[in-house]
Every structure is written in structure tokens, then in C-alpha cells.
Amino acid sequence: MIRIRHRLVLLLVAGLAASACSPTYVLRAAWEEGKILNRRKPIARIVQDTATDWETRDKLLLVLQARQFAADSLRLSAGDSYTLFSRVESDTLVMVLSAAYKDRFQPYTWWFPIVGRVPYKGFFELDDALAAQRKLEAQGYDTYLRPSAAFSTLGWFNDPLLSTLLRYDHVSLANTVIHEIFHNTFYAPGQAVFNESLANFVGGRGAIEFFCRRDGPASRTCETARAAWQDDLLFGAFLEQLVVDLKALYARAELSADDKVRERDRLLADAQRRFAQEVRPRLRVDTFGSFTRDPLNNATLISRHIYYDRLGLFEEVYRSRDGDFIRAMDDIVAAARGNKADPYAAVQALVTPAGGG
């Protein structure tokens, strides 16, 4: 999105339902959601208003078209999501905190009812987020704190389009709408990485379907959507290999925890160098500049990995269905629903011959 790559499902609904959560957090979540809901206006009415500026009208029309495409052509559970618009006061709605162990590729998680464990938590006040970050760092965790301009309530409320999303380009905006609507359609409790990576696949491939049908296969929007998805696949493959290398390092029993962290830091520095020299020049849209700018640790890597885990597997299912995106998506969802404990294994079975490894 901008393209900010970390599309967050901030599970406010979990906080609203969670007796185990802090009452203060629950009340604040309800208050913030209430403010957004109270500001909702029908997008169709805003588009028809002659006082609406051209750029806003153009992007709001795109949102309506993308959500209709998601509902009618992709058969996703759009409900009333993105039929309304809410203007918010700030580009940042929440601060999102992630944490991880320093000497293993394992996230710190927070538990919520309904959705299970998730590897992030949203904070509405910067001071609260910083206090939680300092507490986790004092306990020896890597941390990563970043702003988020959007969230989804997984269909529990009529999610409006937030004004923060109007700064996105057309392809990113349509991708986001389809991505978030997919969360209304399928969400496996306790499987945050699978959920987000699959939604990334659906958003990326769905945007290609949308623009290439609407504007034609030779259109600029169709080509940009294709290029953006190929960039996602390329980055995902690079990140996947880096994670394999890190896990191999952390598995070395002869190394102490401090030795693993020192080796980890050298490996990450080398990864940033290789990305800049070997991967980034191959990107066509190039929305991953922050990978070489920002410090890397297990928390920052896991926060990215959530959205790019095994994208190549989903793409393999798509290709095995002769490029029939809807069939591939439906088969993946059906397989995941049949094996909620290990949805990746279920998806792998879609492309692994019977008796194969």
C-alpha cells in the first residue's frame, strides 16, 4: 500500500469479544471503531456529488467496481464492505507491534478469541506501543513497531473504505479491496501466516483478473498488475530462502544463543546486499525499497514473511489449473477448510501426485 506491503488485519473484533483482554483495550478498540463507523457515508452518494474532486471520484468509482468484481466474478463474500467511505483524521490509525525470539525464527504471539493467536497487536496510542515494545525488548525479544493506515474486521462490521487508502495507486487500491474482502470469505483461526499469504495471492491475482478484463490485456493497468504480482513472487522466493538459511543457523546445536545472534546479523547484512545487487534490479514495480533501508531482525522479517510465505505454492496451484484463477482459489480454500491444523499441507496435496513426496 503506497504500495505499503504490510496489509494488516487488525482484529478489533477479537478485542471487542475478548474477556481475557484488558478492559481498557477493549473500550478503546470499540471507541475507535465507533468513530470510523459514525463517519461512514455511501460511496455512491459521494461519487454523484458535484463537489467531489475528480481524483477522489475516480478512485471511489474504482473501489465500487473492484468490490463488485470480487462479489460477482470471484464469488467472494463482499457483503456491504467498501460501499461506504470514512474520512479519518490521521494517516496512521494504529501502531502495530510485532516481536520475535532473537535466536529462533519464532514470533511472539497474542491470543484473541475467535481468531486464535496472531503475531501482532495494534495500539491506538504511540506511548502505549512504545511501552509495550520496551517491555518486550527488556525480556530479550526482537521487536518491530510500524504504523498501519487500514485494517479489516473480517466482515463483522460493514468495513468502510478509509480516506488513508485514497493515496494508493489504482492497482494497489484494487488489490487491497480484493485482499480484504477475501478475509470476509475465508479466515482460518490461528493460521495468520497462511491467511495473509493466501489473501496476498488472491489480491494480486484478483487485481490482474480485474484490470485485464476491464481494461484489456494490453492496458497499462493490466500490465502493472501483472508486474506487481511477479515482483511479489520474486520477493517471496528470496525471503523464503533467507528464512530457510536462518532456520538452519538457529538449528546448529554447537552454537550458543549469542553466537547465533552474531551469525544471524552477518547473514542478514549479506542478504540486504544481495537483495540490492541481485534482486531489486529485476523488480518491475519495485515496492520493496524498505528492505534495504530498514534494520533487519527476526521481528521485522516475520512481519514481512506473514504476507509472502509460499506464494509460489499458490501460484503452482494456479498454473496446474491452466490459469483458471477462480478454480485455483476455490480449490485452495476447500483444501484449507479440510485441514485446518495444517492448511499448507492440504494445498501442497493439490499439486503433489498421490504417493509423491
List the helices and strands and how they pair.
Blueprint: H1 12-17, H2 23-38, E1 41-42, H3 43-48, H4 54-72, E2 84-86, E3 94-101, E4 110-112, E5 116-118, E6 121-123, H5 126-138, E7 141-148, E8 161-162, H6 170-185, H7 192-214, H8 220-250, H9 257-279, H10 290-293, H11 298-308, H12 311-320, H13 325-338, H14 343-349
Q: What does it look like?
A:
- By secondary structure, the protein is mainly alpha-helical.
- The chain has one domain.
- The strands form 3 sheets. The chain has a 3-stranded mixed β-sheet. It has a 3-stranded antiparallel β-sheet with strand order 6-3-7. The protein has a two-stranded antiparallel sheet with strand order 4-5.
- The N terminus is likely disordered.
Instruction: Please indicate the percent range of residues in DSSP E strands (runs of 2 or more).
Output: 5-15%
Give average pLDDT, whole number: 86
Give the beta-strand count: 8
Q: Which oligomeric form is depicted?
A: single chain
Quickly describe the structure.
The protein has helices at residues 12-17, 23-38, 43-48, 54-72, 126-138, 170-185, 192-214, 220-250, 257-279, 290-293, 298-308, 311-320, 325-338, 343-349, and strands at residues 41-42, 84-86, 94-101, 110-112, 116-118, 121-123, 141-148, 161-162. With 357 residues, the chain is mainly alpha-helical.
Task: Label this structure with key terms.
357 residues; mainly alpha; three-stranded mixed sheet; three-stranded antiparallel sheet; 8 strands; globular; disordered N terminus
